[in-house]
Amino acid sequence: MQLAVTVKPRSKHPEGIERQSDGSFICYTKALPVDGRANAAVLSLVAAYLGVPKSSVRLVRGATSRHKLFQTD
After folding, report:
1. What is the chain's Cα-based Rg?
2. What is the pLDDT of residues 50-67, one digit of tens each?
3. Nearest alpha-carbon partner for 33 in 61, 11, 15
4. Residue 5: how many CB atoms within 10 A of its CB?
5. How far apart are alpha carbons 38 and 72 in whole angstroms?
6. Do 64 and 73 form a contact (C-beta atoms < 8 A)?
């Protein structure tokens, strides 16, 4: 399964994931987009949202972009 996620780092909005009507997701995180901190926070949020371990979620595309693609095993 692949998930298209738009990341909102340094968000004042509570941390979490919202599903959009087009099937994509918006992820709000308070983590800074420095040294992969925001990517790690988003990966944790995606895993928790799906109810799977973090080890089964991987970032496929968008390591330096706000628009990311995650894949689950």
Report:
1. 11
2. 999 999 999 999 999 999
3. 11
4. 21
5. 19
6. no
